[in-house]
Amino acid sequence: MRKEIKETLYLGWPIILGNLSQMFLGVIDSAMVGAIHSSQLAAASFVNNLLTIPLVLGFGLTMAISPLVAHSLGNGDNHKPLVIAVNGLFVALFMMLFLAIGIELSKHFLLHNMGQDDIVVKLSSSYLKWMTWSMIPMILFMVLKQFSDGLGETKWPMYLALASLPVNGLLNYLFIFGKFGFPRMELTGAGLATFISRILLFISIILLITYKSTYKPYLQDVKHAFLLKLSRIQEILKVGIPSAIQYGMEAGAFAVSGVMSGWLGYVQQAAHQIALNMAAITYMVSLGISSAGSIRVANARGQGNADQVKKIGYSNFSMAVFYGLICAFILYLGRNALPQLFNSEIEVLKFTVGLMILAGIFQISDSTQAVGIGLLRGIQDMKVPTLIVLLAYWIVGIPIGYYLAFQLKWEVYGLWIGFIVGLSASALLLFFRFRHKANE
Questions:
Q1: Do 290 and 373 form a contact (C-beta atoms < 8 A)?
Q2: d(Cα 255, Cα 248) in Å, to the nearest integer?
Q3: In this structure, are residues 25 and 281 in contact, taking their beta carbons and an 8 Å threshold?
């Protein structure tokens, strides 16, 4: 068990740091605009919740890349990884363009028909535009990052992702607060800064893969890789579409709850966003463990090593539970201090204390279900896990959260209790599904 945990962490820690860095782009935005006023934080929350589903659909699609690359390496095929990456870029670009244009065309409806406060709607328009188009370079970067991760080269994409943090922070400082001659753009400036940062990040990883010697063995047949074929695209979509749906349904549940928190007023919406930011940070670590487990399981499956698949899987579940306990403890201890990094208004902080406790409670289930999805994706079991996520979030979690929040008047706390119930159901069902598939 110790050996398996060590190998997963060795592969996974750069993925974890890379995931955290991208999550911190949103956290930096929230912290900086939250320092201006809670209405700006609420508007950022509203836009980010609107974009959660399309962004995570794209992200979920890219999650097919690394296990497919790892599986091909397990089979001894060094030419196929680049083919997978190029076709993945094509599919991701088409999908994200379609989603971005759809959001632009429906922007007025989205802003004015979601039950938000007038000030939140007013502040959201320009920020939504920049954040919508920044999704495209972000997802294209993720395709190439997944390609690199699947090859076992997880560190260099991590370095690029970490380097994007100070770049984004500097651009935020210039555009949000109007420093060094730049106009004071406030929330709109945060969106512009994110857009520029993500373009630079995508360009950087193209240069990395093109010129770093580590990738040369996989770039021997570039012309062949750029010959797009339906069969190659179908291979990506076979894993990518269910993966995108899984992550989309999960993130969509959080996004819908975020919109519903706006029905309770911008104060509770701001508190919801603060607690969600903290939970999202801890989730990035779980997602890194999940990605590493998925890659390792896919490689073992490519080698036909069923015993190794079991060892990797059960060690990853153990890691998930242990990590969840640590996160729960940290969030409980920091329930008063951590929210003040985002906002210092008394009314907002009053709600965040309780939400931090609830966010701590669901850490074990959240980590476990993330790892379960990754392991099942690694063995290309997609249909049943997708149904599990649908059941856990949309049939159980969201309705319970709505009932508690609005019928029993538990307000935003009720929405988060719905999270806990949905996550717990998902974690248990995914664990039993993996055990069943591993023993076949």
A1: yes
A2: 10
A3: no
Q: Round to whole Å and give the CA distance between 90 and 137.
A: 13
In angstroms, rounded to a whole number, what is the distance separating the alpha carbons of residues 286 and 276? 15
Residue 289: exposed, middle, or buried by beta-carbon count in 10 A (0-12, 13-18, 19+)?
buried
Is 87:236 a contact under the CB 8 Å cutoff? Answer: yes
How deeply is 74 buried, as exposed, middle or buried, from its count of CB atoms within 10 A (0-12, 13-18, 19+)? middle
159-184 pLDDT, tens digit per residue, is: 898 888 889 889 988 988 888 888 88
Name residue, tokens 């999550």.
23
Strand, coil or helix: 409: coil
User: Nearest Cα to 117, choosing from 38, 187, 192, 191?
Assistant: 38
342-369 pLDDT, tens digit per residue, is 777 888 888 888 899 998 888 889 899 9
In whole angstroms, how large is the CA radius of gyration of the chain? 21
Task: Please tell me the distance from the alpha carbon of residue 440 to that of residue 436, in angstroms, as a whole number.
Answer: 7
Q: How many whole angstroms from its chain centre is CA 392?
A: 18
Chain centroid, CA 185 distance in Å: 27
CB 43 within 8 A of CB 187: yes
